[in-house]
Structures are given as C-alpha cells and as structure tokens.
Amino acid sequence: MKFKLEPYNRNISKQQVVDDIRRVATKLGKDSNGTLTIQEYEKHGSFDPGVARRACGSWFDAISEAGLCPSRLLSVSAEDCIADLGNVARKLGKSSVTQREYSAHGKYSPKPLLRHFGSWFAAIAAAGLERTRTLHVTEQDYFENLEAVWVRLGRQPTYSEMRKPFSKYSVGAYVCRFGSWRGALESFVAFVNDESETRAGGRQYIEPSEEEPEQSKDQQRIPGRTSRSISWRLRFLVMRRDDFRCTVCGRSPAMNRGVTLHVDHIHPWSKSGTTTLENLQTLCEECNIGKSDLPMKEGPEQDCFK
C-alpha cells in the first residue's frame, strides 16, 4: 500500500473553482438555464465541494459565479421575480434598477428574470419601471448632454460626475459609445473645435426647405446674412471663451446656484448683426433679458458686426 497526499487545495483561488465548475457543466451538457448539483461536482470536479464553498461563500454563490442557475431558483415564478424587483426599486428609492444593483440587493439573481422575460429591459418593463438606458442615442445627443454638464460645472466633467440628475446619460453609456471616457472627451472637443460652421460669416442664407422651415416676419433673413439661430456647438465655443460666466455681472452656474447662461448677439441680429463667434457673448438670463435687442454700447453701430 502506498501512502500519497491528495493535492493541497487550501490556496485554490475563486477563479480556479469557477472555471472548474464551468468545465464540469460543459462536460455534462449544462447550459446557463441549467444547474449543477454537489453530487455531480463531487463525481466530475477537480476539487472538493467544500473548496468551492470556501472560495465563493456557498455552493449557491459558486454556481451563480459560474453562470449557472442554482437549483432553488429554477422554481421561482415570474410573479415572484417582478415583486422582488419592485421591492429593490423601492428600497433604493429609484425608478429603475440595473442588473448590478439587483444582484447586490435582490432576493434572487438576475438569471430567473432573464429566463422568464428574455431580457433585462423586458423584466424592467414588466415591473413598471423605467429603462436603465436609452437605445438609438446619437453621437450629437451625447455631445449636447456633455456640453450641458460642462457648462453647468464651468469646467471639464470628471468620470464620477456623469450621473443623474446631473447628466442625462451615464458614463458607462459614453464608454460603450466611444471606447473610454477619455475617448468621449477627445471626440467632443474635436467636434466643438471644428470651425467648419463657426468661421466669420457663419451659415449663409438659403431658401427655406423641409430642413429649415419658413421663419416668422420678425426673423426672416436677408440674402447674404447669417442665420439668427445659434448652434449648440457655437454656443459652447462662446461660453468657453467667456469662461462660462456672464460678461456683464460675472456670475456663473458653477459658483452661483440658479444662474442660467445665454448666448447673445453683441450687435443685435435685428439690426444687421451676424451670428459669428466675434459677435456673440455670454450673458446670464437676467442680464440678457435686461439688454433685450439693445446694442451693448451707445453710439454709432459697429461696422465690424454687420
């Protein structure tokens, strides 16, 4: 009789255990909707089930980590899932719940909800909650949102600041769209700094079309003049140049709560002023309302703005 020590399993990592459970599941033809019993793992696994419990906390957690469905979740009804999802939303005080949040606070794992409803969005809808993200968001939608946060802060937003209600879209949405948060910032800056629509003279007059509907009499343009409307990109360039503060009173949203910034024509558009970077300025809402369509200075009109 030979005396031989069994492999020393005290230092087996969690990842090794999970990988071995997946190997056994694949060998036995188990998919993500199936489960693996302790008895099956004892027969085919490389480690003792006790090692799995020690590494993962419990056999239930070990099975979940491996992407399988613990046996006691197979019998969870759709009604139970929806009720628990609603409980988590109320507990967190939120109108929606992500899979990560549900994994941390829910009674079950996300798997039975996905099995019953086919997708997390469908489960959220069945529970009467809001979607956790919006599909079909355009690149310009992301840029406009980033511009709004940037203006509100008066500086470049950080990774952690891109969250509701401060930001319409999460930083994760930007990472998915642009590859990284830094990539999103670089794409945004490159876009707003593109001078193709902000050179002297701005957008020239064109005949009204479906893209640009007929304007009212007080806004009708004269051939050769720029449009009265200010694109959000040009608006951002003006406010960035003016340090995101009112050029009259000096207030800014970053320093003064409730302040709203507007971009105003220095020489009024109604008096032949152009919609160009040189003829635009940043004013707070109060100063802009007070100025109305008056020129900034008394005296002869400035030819440089015509």
Structure report:
With 306 residues, the chain is mostly helical. It has four domains: 14-72, no CATH class; 76-126; 139-193, no CATH class; 198-203 and 223-305, DNA Binding (I), subunit A. The protein has 13 helices and two strands; from the N terminus they run ααααααααααααββα. The chain has helices at residues 14-27, 38-44, 49-56, 59-65, 78-92, 99-105, 110-117, 120-126, 139-153, 171-178, 181-192, 232-241, 285-291, and strands at residues 261-265, 280-284. The chain has a two-stranded antiparallel sheet with strand order 1-2. Helix 10 crosses helix 11. The radius of gyration is 30 Å and the shape is elongated. Residues 197-223 and 301-306 have low confidence and may be disordered.
Q: List how many beta strands DSSP finds.
A: 2
Architecture per CATH nomenclature, i.e. the level-2 architecture of the largest domain = Orthogonal Bundle
Strand content range: under 5%
Taking strands numbered 1, 2, ... along the chain, how are they ordered across the largest sheet? 1-2
How would you sum up the major sheet? Answer: 2 strands, antiparallel
Structural class: mainly alpha
Shape: elongated
Mean pLDDT: 76
Number of helices: 13
Which range best describes the helical content: under 10%, 10-25%, 25-40%, 40-55%, 55-70% or over 70%? 40-55%
Outline the low-pLDDT stretches. Answer: 197-223, 301-306
Using the coordinates shown, work out and report the CATH topology of the largest domain: DNA Binding (I), subunit A
Note the gap between the termini.
Answer: 105 Å
**CATH secondary-structure class of the largest domain:** Mainly Alpha
The rounded Rg comes to 30 Å
Give the tally of structural domains. 4
Order of helices and strands: HHHHHHHHHHHHEEH
